[in-house]
Structures are given as C-alpha cells and as structure tokens.
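assembly run, all chains below
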Amino acid sequence: DVKVTQSSRYLVKRTGEKVFLECVQDMDHENMFWYRQDPGLGLRLIYFSYDVKMKEKGDIPEGYSVSREKKERFSLILESASTNQTSMYLCASSSGPSGANVLTFGAGSRLTVL
Amino acid sequence: AQSVTQLDSQVPVFEEAPVELRCNYSSSVSVYLFWYVQYPNQGLQLLLKYLSGSTLVKGINGFEAEFNKSQTSFHLRKPSVHISDTAEYFCAVSDRYTGGFKTIFGAGTRLFVKA
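ok done. output:
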C-alpha cells in the first residue's frame, strides 16, 4: 500500500560528498515536493516540480538541486554536503494545481553529514 | 506572505483526557486548512482538512477541528486521547488563489499522552 517511497531511510555522509535522495510515487501525481524538517521549524519547502523536467525553487533552495526525468521519480541532490544540511528530508506528491489537494508523504530520509 | 503559528510546541496530557492543539494563520484571504500527523519514524499523513462549508471538520481517529475566520484559527481537538495518539501534529495552510505549490506548515506540536 506504499504510495511514496524514499529509497534511503538513514544516510551518513561526509562533508563535501555528493548526496542523492531518491523518491518514487505510484499514484500518477503531477506534483512532487522536497521538504526539509527540523525541530522547531516545521517543514520548509526546498524544491517542487509540477511536471516532468520542470522544477521550481521553494523557500530554501540554496545548496540543493533536483531532477525529474520521469513523472514518478523526483531526486534531491546535495552537490557538496555540509554539516548544516543534517536534517530529515521528506518527499511528497499531490495531483493538480489546486491548493485543496492533499500532500502524500514518504517516510522520510534522515541525513547526517559529518 | 502566509504564516502558520502553532502556539504550543509540546502538549503533555493524560490518557482519556481532552486535548486542544492550537493553530493560527496569518492571511485573511480565502485559504484551505489542514492538520497532518506524524507518528514516530514515519512521514506525515492527513488528519483532516477544511476546504469550505461547515466550519467544524471531522477527521480520522476521533479528531475534529473548527475553522474560525474572524480569529484566523483552526484548532484541533479530541475529547478523549489514547496512548496511540502520541505523535507530532502539523497545521498547514494553502492559498485558494496561488494553489497548492506553497503549502505552509507550522512548526509542529508534539503531543505526549501519558498513562
């Protein structure tokens, strides 16, 4: 019954490494999102995509990039990981442009950068 | 810009007691409002949503929320909590006119139910 799958639940990386976080959804949703979750700050939007090969910056895009080559897959890339990117990363998807649409989340990827 | 304030970062409560988790949002324009729940080591899932119509919204697991436009609030309530309700709860808002691409989340309220 899993609908949004994040490939890595826990990752430990070193400063300067390139990090890929993968997300796949099986609901044929147009929209996909990457959020960062930190204690006391809630969820902050990093990037979103409303169509294949389309991407838009969210509120905190610095230090991140994304790729959406197929409708079902949305990847978050940290070109050169830094310790301040240690966080929980949540992928989500939704259908259509309406604000009424519910976000479906993956289980999260907890990244530690040493 | 929209903002969401969850007034309590942590709420401890005894089992079978009532609970209210408070949420205020900033904008006076038409909005959609949501409560999501995150159980330990899981992603977020929808608890309930307000789109239009009746201001009292019922969700899963016995939770309900009331939309108050004049006070720009959307407080979550449950008359009797269970140990299994221990989780983090997020209030979220999206704007009717700019769509769902910029759903704004509050900082979260951690509900801790004690036996």
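The mean pLDDT of chain A is 93.

Chain A touches chain B through 28 residues (CB under 8 Å).

not gonna interpret more than that til we talk
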